[in-house]
Amino acid sequence: KNQVEQSPQSLIILEGKNCTLQCNYTVSPFSNLRWYKQDTGRGPVSLTIMTFSENTKSNGRYTATLDADTKQSSLHITASQLSDSASYICVVSATTSGTYKYIFGTGTRLKVLA
Amino acid sequence: EAGVTQSPTHLIKTRGQQATLRCSPISGHTSVYWYQQALGLGLQFLLWYDEGEERNRGNFPPRFSGRQFPNYSSELNVNALELEDSALYLCASSPRRTNEKLFFGSGTQLSVL
To answer: Most buried residue, A57, A105, B2, B63, by CB count within 10 Å?
Structure first.
């Protein structure tokens, strides 16, 4: 069964600190993995995408890693800011005969405190 | 360039009523996806339309239905509303049947009283 699990469910950190969010997946056939940021009451916005052959991708203070062997990904946030407070969603895409399926994790809710 | 737009922003209905949610994709995008996000839960896939046809459907009852118009905009209809239908309904679009990232609208917050 295609599944994406994220941990922790929620996280509280102080402004300026670093944090790492985890994503484990069992999706086949794997196409790519994206991290989305969702502000409260808004739609998710794509942060990074990684394909099977990529193991690191950065977008400013966000760095995503992918280990295709262990089927794990992480999102590392450096020098957190108050605006980083949001839900972070891991989405794995599977491709079968030209049909694309997006499997969403339940997200990690991050709260950055001043 | 306009993003994905959804209307209305908020919708309040009572049990048993019907709700219609609308979505306009980014210009040039032919695929439209609908998701339900209940409070505190992850996104649950509802429907996928591409070029006017329903391509895939999530594990939801038949009272959740929709359609895609020739201009690629889409409607989601929910009949016989139940209290547990209260959720944020998100629409996303992507270029035709590609594996590109999804662009999401801001959603419609449906409250069923």
So the answer is: A105
Radius of gyration of chain A (CA): 14
Closest CA to B4 of B101, B91, B82, B97: B91
Choose from A31, A48, A102 for mutation: most chain B CBs within 10 A.
A102
How does pLDDT run across A64-101, given as a tens digit for each residue?
Answer: 999 999 999 999 999 999 999 999 999 998 877 767 78
Q: Which of A46, A101, A104 sits opposite B43 (nearest CB)?
A: A104
Cis peptide before B61 (omega within 30 of 0): no
Residues of A within an 8 Å Cβ radius of B: 31-32, 34, 41-46, 49, 89, 91, 93, 95, 98-102, 104-107
Alpha carbon of A105 to those of A87, B2, B44: distances in Å?
11, 28, 10
Contacts of B32 in chain A (CB under 8 A): none
- DSSP assignment of B5-23 equals EEE-SEEEE-TT--EEEEE
Enter the DSSP assignment of B80: S
**Amino acid identity, position A112:** V
Which DSSP string do the residues of A29-84 spell out, in sequence order?
SEEEEEEEEE-TTS--EEEEEEETT--EEEETTEEEEEETTTTEEEEEE-S--GGG
Statement: residue A58 has pLDDT above 90: yes
